[in-house]
Amino acid sequence: MKLFYSATSPFARKVLVCATEHGLSGQLELIQAHPIQNADQVAAVTPLGKVPALQTESGRVIVDSPLICEYLDRLAVAAGKQSLMPSLLDNPNQAEDDARLHALADGIMDAAYLYVMESNRPTEQQSAMWQQRWTEAVRRTLAFLEDAFRTTGLPAGLSLGGIALGCALGYLDFRLADLGWRDSHPALADFYGPLSARTSFLESAPTS
Ligand SMILES: N[C@@H](CCC(=O)N[C@@H](CS)C(=O)NCC(=O)O)C(=O)O
């Protein structure tokens, strides 16, 4: 399988973490493809021009990191591994909570990534309105998750939603360290500490 990725993309990191946790990283051929600097290369693989994209052994291309992670999860389960996705049949509430956590974490990544890209444009072309909107989305979602974790406790065990949140928080550390998210989100910090020390996270840490 070929994974088209960028070393700074939190969405691609999520896929790399899933692959490592499932023991599948040896089956991935990693192809660095920066969506802006190598736009033509990425567009030739996926019409959206975004990374990550996974080309399977049969040549099919899977786009969107949640779908890629689910695909890897199915491969792992077929090989006898435990799924990273709580079962909808056996544990519907946990499955819904984890899927929501995944979506919220992806939303943090989306807003943070767009904020960073906008901030990289010439100052006179930047939109303060959009930057404020994206910052507020990140802040609100962090506050929402902090409140949820304090109320219900930290999510137990390793899951796709938890991995996504770890990648979102890691991206904030990497690109928006001034946000100082740990200061007002101690429950998220407690959650992230042990997660970020896992081999899968250490090996996939973003590099500029
Ligand atoms: N929903 C997509 C988002 C992927 C995404 O936004 N990737 C960024 C890099 S972090 C990208 O390739 N952006 C290029 C662009 O927006 O043109 C996913 O989960 O895979």
Q: What descriptive keywords fit this protein?
A:
208 residues; 2 domains; alpha+beta; 8 helices
Provide a descriptive summary of the structure in words:
The protein has 208 residues and is of the alpha+beta class. The chain has two domains: 2-78, Glutaredoxin (3-Layer(aba) Sandwich), CATH 3.40.30.10; 92-198, Glutathione S-transferase Yfyf (Class Pi), Chain A, domain 2 (Up-down Bundle). It is 57% helix and 7% strand. It has helices at 10-21, 39-45, 65-78, 92-119, 128-152, 160-175, 186-196, 199-203; strands spanning 2-5, 29-32, 53-55, 61-63. The protein has a four-stranded mixed β-sheet with strand order 2-1-3-4. Strand 3 (53-55) and strand 4 form a beta hairpin. Helix 6 (160-175) packs across helix 7. The longest helix is centred in the middle third of the chain and has 28 residues, at 92-119. The two termini are 25 Å apart. The relative contact order is 0.15. The mean pLDDT is 97. Residues 9, 11, 35, 49-52, 64-65, 106, 113 line the site of glutathione.
Write the SSE topology:
Elements (H helix, E strand, L loop, with lengths): L1 E4 L4 H12 L7 E4 L6 H7 L7 E3 L5 E3 L1 H14 L13 H28 L8 H25 L7 H16 L10 H11 L2 H5 L5
Parallel strand pairs: 1-2
Antiparallel strand pairs: 1-3, 3-4
The structure holds glutathione.
Derived structural class: alpha+beta
What strand line-up does the widest sheet have?
2-1-3-4
Query: What CATH architecture label of the largest domain applies?
Result: Up-down Bundle
What is the first-to-last residue Cα distance?
Answer: 25 Å
Based on Cα principal axes, name the global outline. globular
Rounded average pLDDT: 97
Distinct bound molecules: glutathione
Which strand-content bin applies to the residues? 5-15%
The radius of gyration computed from the alpha-carbon positions, rounded to a whole number of angstroms, is: 17 Å
| Helix segment tally | 8
Q: Describe the biggest sheet?
A: 4 strands, mixed
For the secondary structure, the number of strands is: 4
pLDDT < 50 stretches: none
- Could you please say which CATH topology of the largest domain applies here? Glutathione S-transferase Yfyf (Class Pi), Chain A, domain 2
Order of helices and strands: EHEHEEHHHHHH
